[in-house]
Write a structure and sequence with these properties.
Chain lengths: 112, 117
């Protein structure tokens, strides 16, 4: 069975600093996608970044970037220049066969 | 980009009554939609996969007769919680994927907070 593990229930970072959220996954598929979603207090799920497994280059979206280690099945999210608006739950998810498998989430706290 | 509209955003109902939640894809056709349930401070739990024109596929442990799913058109899926009880109180979220989008990903509705009293 596919699994996604987020081992950090909560992380905190000083505003303007950099923080990395960890995620590991397990899949037997050769072709799959990986995602990071953000869920702020409004509870709207927002796509932060996606990574296609066949692409070796790490995805980047402005202040958000990933460190994708396919052999290690690791997919961490780095948030640079953290802002107060980044405070939220962050969920890592994998997708193959058009179904998302979710991690337990990491609560990110931004200290002003 | 793809937009999914979910209504209502919150609902309070009496125990024993039924509640319908709607999920619409506004600018794309969704042959498949997903229904999730989320308990406080927990991750999303997939309840069922809704397929247009056919029966939904329910996850193990989800009562089909309690959570009725209808996906009658390419832009609308509904979840009806029948004979609701306080333990059904939760946050329900729908999701869909635009199969024609160049950017592979899933779009989520804003969720429905159900409170059964």
């Amino acid at each position: 069975a596919q699994t996604v593990t987020q081992s950090q229930p909560e992380m905190s970072v000083q505003e303007a600093e950099t923080v990395t959220l960890s995620c590991t996954y397990d899949t037997s598929e050769s072709d799959y996608y990986l995602f990071w979603y953000k869920q702020p207090p409004s509870r709207q799920m927002i796509l932060v970044i996606r990574q296609e497994a066949y692409k070796q280059q790490n995805a980047t979206e402005n202040r958000f970037s990933v460190n994708f280690q396919k052999a290690a099945k690791s997919f961490s999210l780095k948030i640079s220049d953290s802002q107060l608006g980044d405070a939220a739950m962050y969920f890592c998810a994998s997708d193959s066969n058009y179904q998302l498998i979710w991690g337990a989430g990491t609560k990110l706290i931004i200290k002003p | 980009g793809a937009v999914v509209s979910q209504h209502p955003s919150w609902v309070i109902c009496k125990s024993g009554t039924s509640v319908k939640i709607e999920c619409r894809s506004l600018d794309f056709q969704a042959t498949t939609m997903f229904w999730y349930r989320q308990f406080p401070k927990q991750s999303l739990m997939l309840m069922a996969t809704s397929n247009e024109g056919s029966k939904a596929t329910y996850e193990q442990g989800v009562e089909k007769d309690k959570f009725l799913i209808n996906h009658a058109s390419l832009t609308l899926s509904t979840l009806t919680v029948t004979s609701a009880h306080p333990e059904d109180s939760s946050f329900y979220i729908c999701s869909a994927r635009d199969p024609l989008s160049a950017n592979y990903g899933y779009t989520f509705g804003s969720g429905t907070r159900l409170t059964v009293v």
